[in-house]
Structure formats: C-alpha cells, structure tokens
Amino acid sequence: MIKITHISHIESLIEKHETPVKANSKGDKKNIFILLVLYTLQGVPLGLSLAIPIIIQNMHLSSFKEQAKFSLAVWPFSLKILWAPLVDSLFIRKLGRRKSWLIPVQYFLDIIVDGWALTMLKKQNISYASMCNSAGQTFGIFLGYNLSVLLISESFWNKWWRTSPLPDGIITLQGYFYFWGIIYIVITTLVAIFKYEKDYLTEFDAINLGILKTYLLLFSIMKLPSIRMFTIILFTIKMSFCSVDAAFKLKLINCGITKDEIASIDLLIIPLNICLPFLIAKFTSKEKPLKNYFNTIPYRLLFGVILATIAYLTPYFLVQTGSLLITYKVFLVLMYSFQQLSVNIMTLTSMAFYASISDPKIGGTNMTLLATISNLGNAWSKTGALWLIELLTFKRCSNGPRQFCSSLNNQNEMCSLFGGTCEVFIDGFYIETIICTIYGIIWIFIFRKIINNLQSKNVKEWHVEIKSKEIY
After folding, report:
1. In this predicted model, what pLDDT tens digit does every residue of 88-120 receive, in sequence order?
2. DSSP per-residue letters across 63-121
3. Could you tell me the pTM of the whole model?
C-alpha cells in the first residue's frame, strides 16, 4: 500500500464542497485557449486514422476483415497509460512536470495534455477541461479527417471548383502530413518558450514520486473498488454501439455513397460538434455527469438502429431522382447529426466525470488511466465489430445459388473462374447491429443502479489514501 504523509493545499483541489463552486472562465481564458490548441493537435492524427479507411474503402472496396486489421493503428493511443507514470515521476523541474514531456515528445507527434489540464485551470474551472478536450479533439479530427479527404479528392475539385478536369486534388496525402509536421514543431516551440507551468512542488515536495513508486501508485489506483467497477462499465458499454460506430460509413460506401459525400456530411455537423461543449459546459459543471452519460445511452441505441435502416435502404434511394432522393439525403444528414450529438454528449459528460474524480497531484496518471480505459473499450469493440461483420456475412455465387463463396477454400476464385460473381445474401452488418442493440438494452437494466451508486460516491473513494512520507 502506498502512503505519503502530507495534507496540503493541493488536497483542496479534489475535495467536494457542500456548496458547489460556480465555474468562471475569467482569469483562465488564456489557459482554455492553450488547452484547445493542444487538444486540437491531439485530434489531428485521430482524424487521419479515420480518413485513411474511408480512402481505402472508396478505392479498393476492402473487406471488413482488412479494415479490422487497420483499426489496430489507433491502439497505441489507447495504451498511453503505460507511460503516464513516467510523466508524473520524471521531469525537469525548471521546465515543468508536463512541459518536460510535451515539448520533446510532441516534436515526434504525440501529446501529453490530460494531466496538465487539471493543474493549468483554476479549481472551479476543472469542468472546462472536458470542454477543451471535446471541442479541441473534434476540431482536430475535422482537420485530419474531413479536410484531408476533401483536399486530396480529385472528383470533389473537378466537380465543384475546376473549369477543366485535372488529376488529383489540390494536395497529396504526403504533403498534408508534411504540413502538419511543421505546425506541430511551430506550436510546440511557442508553448515551450511562452507558457509557464505551475510548480506545485515548490511547497509540496512530498508528492514527487520516483518511477517505481508512481507505477505502484497506478496499480493501487487500479485496485480501488470504484475504479474496478468503472473499468467494467467502460469496457462493456461500447459493445452496444460498435457495429454502427465502426462500419456505418464503410457500409454507405459499399452501397454507393462516395467518400466525398461522406466527408461533406461530416462537414455539415462539425460546427455543432465544436459548439456543443461550450453550450453544455455549465450544465455539466452543475449536474451529475455520469448520470447524464447513462441517460444518453438509449438515444444513441435508437439512432444507431435508424442509421442501420438507412444504410439498408440506400441502394433503393440512390437510383431515385427529384424530391425522393433529396428527402433521403436530408433524412440521412438529420439522423446522423442526432447520432453524433448523442456520441458527443456521452464523450463530454464522461470527460467531465473523469476530471471531477481525478487527483491533480498525480493528474497525468489518474486522468489518463480513466481516458485509457475508455479508449481501450472503444478500440477493442470496433476492431472486434469489423472482424465479426466479415464472419457473419454469407455470400453465394451468382451462377449457382447453392454454391457458397468463401476465401478460406478458394471458393471465390472458383466462382469467378466459371463466370460468376459472389453476392451477399446475409449481411453481417445488420445482423451484428441487431445483436449489439439487444445487448445494449440488457446492459442498461444491469448497470442502472451501479452507475447511480458510482455517481453518489465521495471523491475520496476514487483516490489512493495519502498519509505518510514513506512508501511501503
């Protein structure tokens, strides 16, 4: 057990007060802006990881199994907790605990921001950390995903902006990577020079832990009953939405929607995604964020079923003209906007909850642990969903209804050899969506009381007890 003797002023940052402290951005506007910029840079590579599967699917119509393999690319981001204790234990004091890592590491494309957000903002403004995370990452994802897809698209620029067709877009994907590499270097240098990091160690050297002690502290946090139960929640809830989250856009491409149209649809709702955190920041600072998170789940399940239905009907509507086609596109955008609204509300409220229960003394470890658990739950469920869709999909040869197509025994090649094509007669995407939705409904009834109980716990129950200067 880890025990450190010292009760200090910093402890007040994590204590609950009987009278809620009202958030006030006055005096923190510069810090909020800096966090927005840093979280935007965090969102850019995430956006690029979303853009590349869309580009691949549009060019080659890759299988869902191949997409599942590529989805493993985001797993390292989800495992950042493995080096979070290093951020809290190894640093150059003169430079600052977080800047010691953010500056050199960001030069090589990575970010360490979660823990800094807890100490950069004033005590009453901790709820703004989730706002900065959501709005910044959303804008970064837009820059890495929507903007990149449109800028490199030959068809988009030839159709809407050029008087005569030309090959390629206005920039290559390689050139876009170079551009963002330069932006990272410039912004990182500016942060290194002009942003001062608060030094809590000036008065509170007792919380300066070594590497081994910090990892022991991490394990102690993970053994807390509240954390263990919360881990189960975050690891299991994403299975309810994984089919639509992972494959809806890929399914639209298979049904005839182009990558440019998908990027344009996302572009329409970007303003809502960016403004939403600011609109409900005060709401999440007053209400119980975990309860709001839970209450949004049924709506996300509903909109997921609606989107799957839209995908199923897409081939029919794409051959229509006039008002029927326009009505379909408007309904698609509207339902997708509502689904994304529910996703962003859950993200924002969960981040607000992480910030409210995290210990600022070990913010880089504590805050990142919670975010990592959520990211891992999201990553494994999406990878599993893409793989399972391929397993649940059944095809047969057009030349023989009883001849099934399978890549395992070269049946696809045999079908092509005899002049036929493999056609889907049972689509795994829709089967999986039904299974996930039923699972989500059952999940709601199982975890309703558990979530209410976690929300009502005192913040101290989420922290490792700190009482003695010795660790043993």
Report:
1. 666 777 777 666 776 666 655 474 566 666 667
2. -HHHHHHHGGGGHHHHTGGGTHHHHHHS--TTT-TTHHHHHHHHTTS----HHHHHHHS
3. 0.71
